[in-house]
Every structure is written in structure tokens, then in C-alpha cells.
């Protein structure tokens, strides 16, 4: 069974309001007071890996006392600004996680989580992307 995730967005001045379920989030450009799309992407990737670890640990009855994480993404803004030879997106993503667990199987859980994390997979695999443009006049 395939699950479909959705989001809706609308430009409001110099920011976009995104609707996810019953919540609205404001997203802005680099330098604005709002989180950027890249920061939302990183937040999604980090939370997904943490939740994947939690889920697999529960599946295998491995006790985890805590999980904390940090993620950073590196980007050269010249790509977004139109310089052809520089990719416009993130060039590198680095995770740093601290997991508190005394269970001897924790490393197995972490290896499996790295393989099964949907957002990590999305960031590392070429994903088919379709854009449908509709012009209103």
C-alpha cells in the first residue's frame, strides 16, 4: 500500500504559508525572520531519523532512555542566485546524534535505522519529481 503525503502553500508577501494537517507554517528566504525551506528539510530529516530509531527500538524491545540530535546542511547560495556551475540545493548534510541506551543491541538498531529512515533515503536517492505548471491570467 502506498501512502500519499500532502502539503499546500501560498505566497504571502516575501514568505510562503504552508499548511500541513491542521497547522500553518511560515517559510522565508535566507536572511528573513522565518525558517527557510532548507531548514524545514533538515528538521524533517533529523526528526525522521530520531523517530525511526525510536520505532525500530520499540519493535525489537530495545530500551532507549533518550535521543538528541543536531543536523546541518551546507549550501552555496550562488547556485540559487543563478550561477550555472554550482548546484542550487544542499551540497552536504551532516547528522550528529546522541543516543542513551545500555542495551547491547543498540548498534544494530542504529544501522537498521540508517537503512530504513524514509527522509534519509529521500535525500540520498534520486526521487522522481513531477511539476505541473498552471498559469492563471
Explain the overall architecture.
This protein is of the alpha+beta class and 137 residues long. The protein has two domains: 1-35; 36-124, 2-Layer Sandwich (GMP Synthetase, Chain A, domain 3), CATH 3.30.300.20. 33% of the residues lie in helices and 28% in strands. The chain has helices spanning 37-59, 77-80, 106-116, 118-124, and strands at 8-12, 15-20, 23-28, 66-75, 90-100. The chain has a three-stranded antiparallel β-sheet with strand order 1-2-3, with no helix packed on it. A hairpin with a 2-residue loop joins strand 1 and strand 2 (15-20). Helix 1 packs across helix 3 and helix 1 (37-59) crosses helix 4 (118-124). The radius of gyration is 18 Å and the shape is globular. This is Peroxiredoxin.
CATH class of the largest domain reads Alpha Beta
Low-pLDDT parts are: none
Arithmetic mean pLDDT:
97
Number of helices: 4
Give the biggest sheet. Answer: 3 strands, antiparallel
Give helix and strand order, one letter per element, not per position.
EEEHEHEHH
**Structural class assignment:** alpha+beta
InterPro entries: KH_dom-like_a/b, OsmC/Ohr_fam, OsmC/Ohr_hydroprdx_reductase, OsmC/Ohrsf
Protein name: Peroxiredoxin
Question: What are the key terms here?
Answer:
single chain; 137 residues; alpha+beta; GMP Synthetase, Chain A, domain 3; 2 domains; 3-stranded antiparallel β-sheet; 28% strand
Topology:
Elements: E1 8-12, E2 15-20, E3 23-28, H1 37-59, E4 66-75, H2 77-80, E5 90-100, H3 106-116, H4 118-124
Antiparallel strand pairs: 1-2, 2-3, 4-5
